[in-house]
Design a protein that fits this description.
Blueprint (H helix, E strand, L loop, with lengths): L1 E2 L5 H16 L8 E2 L4 H14 L5 E3 L3 H13 L9 E6 L2 H5 L5 E4 L2 H18 L13 E2 L5
Parallel strand pairs: 1-2, 3-4, 4-5
Antiparallel strand pairs: 5-6
């Protein structure tokens, strides 16, 4: 797993979700490295994972940007995606469709998230009170070519 920054709640929750999913099927990651949500983190971490765990056959990247960097490293190392290493990202941003092979990814429901935030803001404006609450949104899997 190539994780996001440990000081961001969203990244921590993504990591917890993946770890819980793996545990549910009696698996655990052979490597888990945290860092910035960027392609460079994906590239360098994927290189390190391949060096330390050449048998790796699947990678979850906590953002599509991270996944794009990991994909670049995998292809440069002669790995076929998904035949040798399956790769899944998170966000369903433009980069997921722009790379080749296109990324299988979990989609953030951005329109629903924006609508919810807007309703919370309107409530604040109407009542003068700010009712902060955590809202978890489902992130459906979008199957493409990388996994």
């Amino acid at each position: 797993m190539i994780a996001g920054p440990t000081d961001m709640q969203a990244a921590v929750l993504r990591s917890e979700g993946v770890l819980a999913g793996l545990k549910a099927v009696d698996l655990e990651p052979v490597a888990m490295v945290s860092g910035e949500y960027g392609a460079e983190h994906g590239e360098t971490t994927m290189r390190r994972i391949l060096e330390e765990h050449p048998e790796v056959d699947g990678v979850f990247a906590e953002s599509d940007e991270i996944a794009s960097g990991a994909l670049r490293t995998l292809l440069n190392a002669g790995k076929r995606v998904p035949q040798d290493v399956a790769l899944i990202g998170f966000d369903d941003f433009h980069v997921a469709r722009a790379v080749s092979p296109s990324l299988t990814t979990f989609a953030q429901p951005l329109a629903t998230m924006a609508e919810t935030a807007t309703k919370m803001l309107v409530e604040r404006l109407n009542t003068g009170e700010w009712q902060c609450k955590a809202v978890l949104f489902p992130a459906p899997l979008v199957r493409r070519e990388s996994a």
